[in-house]
Amino acid sequence: MDRAQKEKLVEDLGQIFESSGVVVVSRYEGMTVAEMQDLRAQMREAGGFVRVAKNRLAKIALDGKPCASIANYLTGMTVLAYSEDPVAAAKVVQEYSKMNPKLDILGGAMGENELDRAGVKAVASLPSREELIASIVGCVVAPASNLAGALGAPASNIAGILATIEEKAA
């Protein structure tokens, strides 16, 4: 890799560290290519990405970034998982590490906040953006549907009573 390629890689990594909602650093020693491809596919489905980069270049890219504290985790064979959604990457890595113990979560960052192993696990347990939107929509729609049901019920009751009175009169 020549100097221009390294500079481009450092620039790309810098963009990742600045724009991602969460970055998770894991050790992947012993994982096969197929296992890594499976992790990448699961991450892509969740809207995240997986990146393997030289630790030295990643540390250079972290310089001056809000999540610079994760430089301590960049030793050995590390992989970066990141996503715009502050929960997606952590959730996928946490689930994958349960299925494949070769993927060892070291820590990560959410904005300026450094996350240790327990922090990544806590973030992974949070609901995703889509789940939060769905629950908010459910809370907003529920009163409207209850109101419509309440307003419709007396009208149907009155119609039933009138039908009964009409039958008795006939």
Could you explain the architecture of this structure?
The structure is a single chain. The protein is an alpha+beta fold. The chain has two domains: 3-126, 2-Layer Sandwich (Alpha-Beta Plaits), CATH 3.30.70.1730; 127-170. 58% of the residues lie in helices and 15% in strands. Strands 2-3-1-4-5 form a five-stranded antiparallel sheet. Helix 1 (3-19) packs across helix 3 (55-62) and helix 4 (88-99) crosses helix 5 (117-124). The mean pLDDT is 85.
Q: Descriptors for this entry?
A:
single chain, Alpha-Beta Plaits, five-stranded antiparallel β-sheet, 6 helices
Write down the Rg.
26 Å
Helical content class: 55-70%
The assigned CATH architecture of the largest domain is: 2-Layer Sandwich
Give me the count of strands: 5
* Biggest sheet: strand arrangement: 2-3-1-4-5
| Contiguous uncertain segments of 5+ residues | none
Roughly what is the average pLDDT, rounded to an integer?
85
Q: Indicate the overall shape.
A: elongated
CATH class of the largest domain: Alpha Beta
What is the fold named in CATH at topology level of the largest domain?
A: Alpha-Beta Plaits
Task: Figure out the total of helices.
Answer: 6
Number of self-contained structural domains: 2
Q: Helices and strands: which structural class?
A: alpha+beta
Q: What name goes with the CATH superfamily of the largest domain?
A: Ribosomal protein L10, N-terminal RNA-binding domain
Distance between the termini: 96 Å
Topology at a glance:
Elements: H1 3-19, E1 22-27, H2 33-45, E2 48-51, H3 55-62, E3 78-83, H4 88-99, E4 104-110, E5 113-115, H5 117-124, H6 129-169
Antiparallel strand pairs: 1-3, 1-4, 2-3, 4-5
